Amino acid sequence: MLLLLIHVIMGVTVCERICTAPNGTDTHLVWKSCSDGPIIFHNLTLLDENRKFFPFCNAMYPIDAKKPFIVSGSITNTANEYYGDLATSVKLYKWGGLFGCHWYQIPSFGVLDDLVECGKGIECPIRPGPQQLTMTFNLRGIDYFIKILPDGVPYKMIFEIMDLAKDTYSCIEMWSVIRT
């Protein structure tokens, strides 16, 4: 049994090395919208905790999960109402795997839910029209979870942003190498 476990672990490690990072994530952040609104994202930038840019192809990239980071987006709230009861849910996927180069969801058992919400990482309310939205992620409280993740491999994070009181939903997908 132990030999089988060692073989599987070694096989996953070899496969992760063979799988090249998708869409240039070895050098820069990739993102896309995964919903139709009402919050529409136009661009997305990574900032460090001091609000300094994470320049592409710089030593600041990839994301260091041991340090707070900010996801800042130019958005448009297409609804004619304010959103002030925002919360997030994050789904995490790892690139690579034993059976080929694919995204594999990592079960988080709710650990990644409500990491940021109004008053805790999101500046609220979100008013109608164009504006800047910043979400600050400080993962130090879940370092026990971060430590078990493979270091330096591409991850896909799906950020689901919900207004709990108004039953609305928006979503962005980010691909990045993450240091754990």
Count the beta strands. 11
Largest pleated sheet: 6 strands, mixed
Named CATH architecture: Sandwich
Order of helices and strands: HEEEEEEEEEHEE
Q: Output the number of helix runs.
A: 2
Share of helix, binned = 10-25%
CA-atom Rg in angstroms: 17 Å
Count of discrete domains: 1
What overall form do the CA principal axes indicate? globular
Organism: Thelazia callipaeda (Oriental eyeworm)
Keywords: Signal
Signal peptide: 1-15
Protein name: ML domain-containing protein
Strand and helix layout:
Elements: H1 2-18, E1 30-33, E2 39-48, E3 63-64, E4 69-77, E5 86-96, E6 102-106, E7 117-118, E8 121-122, E9 129-137, H2 143-146, E10 153-163, E11 168-179
Parallel strand pairs: 3-11, 7-8
Antiparallel strand pairs: 1-11, 2-4, 4-9, 5-6, 5-10, 10-11
Describe the structure in your own words.
This protein has 180 residues and is mainly beta. The chain has a single domain, classed as Immunoglobulin-like, CATH 2.60.40. It has helices spanning 2-18, 143-146, and strands at 30-33, 39-48, 63-64, 69-77, 86-96, 102-106, 117-118, 121-122, 129-137, 153-163, 168-179. The strands form 3 sheets. Strands 1, 3, 5, 6, 10 and 11 form a 6-stranded mixed β-sheet that branches. It has a 3-stranded antiparallel β-sheet with strand order 2-4-9, with no helix packed on it. Strands 7-8 form a two-stranded parallel sheet. A hairpin with a 4-residue loop joins strand 10 and strand 11 (168-179). The longest helix has 17 residues, at 2-18. The chain starts with a helix and ends with a strand.
